[in-house]
Amino acid sequence: MKSLFERDMSVINVGLQSFADNVAAAGGTVTNLAWVPPAGADAALGWTLAGLVGDPRIEAANRIAYDRYLAAQPRLIDLILAREAMPGLSGDNRRILHSGPPIAWADMCGPQQGAIAGAIVYEGWADTIPAAEAMAAAGEVTLEPCHHHGAVGPMAGIISPSMPVWVVENAEAGNRAFCNLNEGLGKVLRFGANSPEVLDRLTWLGTEFFGVMQAAVRGLEDKNLKPMMAQALHMGDELHNRNAAASALLFKRLVLSLGKLDLDSDAVNRALTFIAGNDHFFLNISMAASKSMSDAAHGVPGSSMVTVMARNGVNFGIRLSGTGEQWFQAPANPVDGLYFPGYSVADAAADLGDSAITETNGLGGFAMAASPAIVQFVGGTPADATANSRRMLTITLGANPAFTLPPLNFGGTPAGVDARLVVDSGVLPIINTGIAHRKAGVGQIGAGITTAPMECFNDAIAALAVSLDAIPMPEGATT
User: 415 and 340: one domain?
Assistant: First the structure.
């Protein structure tokens, strides 16, 4: 025993970080294993989880879902008005789509309410913002999640009938996904701004810009998005908060298409100038592509693969492939990030937007290793970015060979979040995101990193276990 204390102290610590800190403070060498009890130490949920690990029904379902995801081939096929793309927005329906899981008007955050009011005025259903707010509060406009209509939208995520939407089709399975146009930075509808200048920009985007871009998209020689997105990852994008390379690659294709068309040169110049000044332009197309790929994996009974992660500024919601259209929600986590001068976390809305569909698809926070420059925007170091990507491999069904990351020796992006692995390991999906001011109209006040709340995954695992009762065990298989 005496000789033991005479040696240099080298310790492996399991669990509490404070124990490791004390060893290090005493001059010892310590390796800390950040272990926590599975299922948050909930004994009943832990037993439920244990029954799902290795279940042959889940393993078979996950292989089907993940293979469908990998096989998806997103193609940018059109730009059309939302009422033409989605039957729920056609006709006389006064319906507006928003980001995240379902939420009532009275419970919405400021940016989402402000954006909805702006969209009501944009549609001509009300003449003023106060009148629009009164309409929404009275239930005269139906408010539903974008995801209920095969769509996604960044931040407030607002899509109304007269807004143009990108149409991305998965050529492998034929399913389509939609996303609105990116308005650029500053005071924009997606952050809750609804001033005349915001509505004037929306009107231009929905008329002149729409006409030019629709012709350009329809004339594209190469409509495939997957190779372009893969190339952008090799050029420093992660396709959520950094889209500079992807936007430039798309710009080249659009210019080549427009060069073959007989359009008004001034209108074309205005459209291209707008795109050239907006490094986030590709984000909305990245989101629609990601939605088309994740939707391809949705609806496989018994699958524990996560196919939706979305936030509405109040709650965070997920969906599993194997539990259909059911949402699992919990309060959205705050965002740990870098704030613009004059702002702090006290000014921020909670996590907001459908853009976490990129992380659901293995991009964004999961692909941060490809984008060391992103840390200047969201905080941390390049080493942190790489570590985030590596850590996500512990909770995913695999790595996507189509989306490779140079810093990981060209290994694929972690993809196919398995809710079982999240609950078992305590490792939460990481998301990098913009930060909206909690009040409507102020706009973006920073950017940072957050995680999905564990409660969503706990509830999803419990529901998945119940759903297995309807799925027969393969012959000869045991749990």
Answer: yes
